[in-house]
Amino acid sequence: MSPQATPMSPHLESPPWLPPELIEQILFELWAAPQSAQERTTLFKTLCRVNHVWLGLFLRVAFRNVHIPCPLFARDFLRLLPERTISQGEADLFTAEATSLVNRLCRSITFHVDGGASTTGSGTAREPAIKLYSQTDAAPTAISTVLYMVSTFDYLPNLRHVALEYTDWGYDDLFDQLRLAIFPPQVTHLSLKYSFSAPTLVPLAVYLKSLYTRHRQSHFTIPTVRHLSLSGVPTEFVVDMMQICPELDTVEISNPARLYVIAPLPKSVRTLVLRVPGRTLDKEQMHWWMLAAALEGKLFHPDTKARIVVRSGTPDPIAWTETKRYCRRFGAELVYERDESCCVS
Q1: pLDDT tens digits along 142-152
Q2: Is the peptide bond before 264 cis (omega within 30 degrees of 0)?
Q3: DSSP per residue, 318-339
Q4: pLDDT tier at 91 (50, 70, 90 boundaries)?
Q5: What stretches of 129-266 show up as alpha helix (H) in DSSP?
């Protein structure tokens, strides 16, 4: 029942007041949570319409860690980057708030490229499929466009991290279409993640990994990237990306296998991070790393103080001890870091 005014209480009770810091933390958690492109677009539009206070707080969150969930969002994002001229007239509340924040706050941009986002002509969702190649798809083209504009016009001076998340796509688009050929020099961290939306696509994805062919001649390099994070990719893809990023300090691989393929690492690499989702890390999983063969193949440069960091659930103690002893034999330090995000069921 709704509260009613009485002679003893002439005013209705106001809702509980939340401090701006708490609201901003709530908004941060909402924005950071995994979401589909449609969900993120809806969330953005909804939170921007609550009130002026929420708009200001949310834009501080959204433009610190920018997500590009669709091509239209990329177009609107680019419109915010240049300072508004007098001839353009007075901006609306959203544009004024956003333009003043984005160049000052933006530290990361995540591009979402969904191969299954398109629909058939009838408007019904199409059957799950993996897109192998497209010169005209607007979603991956948005990557090149945004990075070109940021690089050419020196926008986003505090940008440090660029992430690409491909869903239901093959592995060659990045290389064949030169998506990263023009890259902001201020960016030091690059992340690439490939995933597949339907269980029926997993066998095809495994087959595509087995067919992956090295791009042995890179047509561009990104010498400013120091930290490279890769997930859901063939091991040969890792080698191709290290060729593009020749000055790496840290390479991070999720669900690693056949590590001898990446040996030897570039001389600059001092840290190899192996991330394995799950509550436990068993002997068989560690076996598929083939770390012994990689170390024997001179995984690290002899002059490097090498570290191998494993982020996972609890490792098998016997297999861990054996692996640590073998790493020490080749002058590499093996370090375990519990990854709580991997261990949540």
Answers
A1: 999 999 999 99
A2: yes
A3: HHHHHHHHHHHHTTEEEEEEE-
A4: low
A5: 138-152, 173-176, 202-211, 235-244
